[in-house]
Amino acid sequence: MAATVQQILQTKGNASYAVTPDTTVLQALQLMAERNISAVLVMEGERLAGIFTERDYARKVVLKGLASKDTKVGDLMTPNVLTVSPNHTIDECMCIITNNHVRHLPVVDHGKVVGLISIGDAVKSVMEQQQATIDQLSGYISGGLST
């Protein structure tokens, strides 16, 4: 059975970090550095307004010569973020990530953000699934040889 987003969130937790559109890029980067994360959600109250990532910083601040302390996240965030539900499978998430060249997927359940998964979370889940299959097949083969 394919692993789901809900299973990842149960393992890693639902913690996600957010800023508002009025947060400065410097403040967002400080939060990202403190939490050792590469993206923050941009929220307007309970509504997901966008996402701000290290990629956004590199491409939209550094390359354009903008000042991090004077630029607002809302001016540079990626709006219209692709999201997934807790019921999405990891295989579905990997397809979304690959086909859309994104690294983070906010998890939304009934209109509310309940977490965030990254490409690293998805890859780790796939690797764990593969290892479980290998262990199961190895046990089957070993058990079959001893009878």
UniProtKB/TrEMBL annotation:
PROSITE patterns registered for this protein in UniProt: CBS
Record keyword Membrane present: no
Keywords: CBS domain
Keyword presence, Zinc-finger: no
Domain of life: Bacteria
Residue stretches in coiled coil: none
InterPro entries linked to this entry: CBS_dom, CBS_dom_sf, CBSX3_CBS_dom, Diverse_CBS-Domain
Domain CBS: 10-68, 77-133
The protein, known as: Inosine-5-monophosphate dehydrogenase
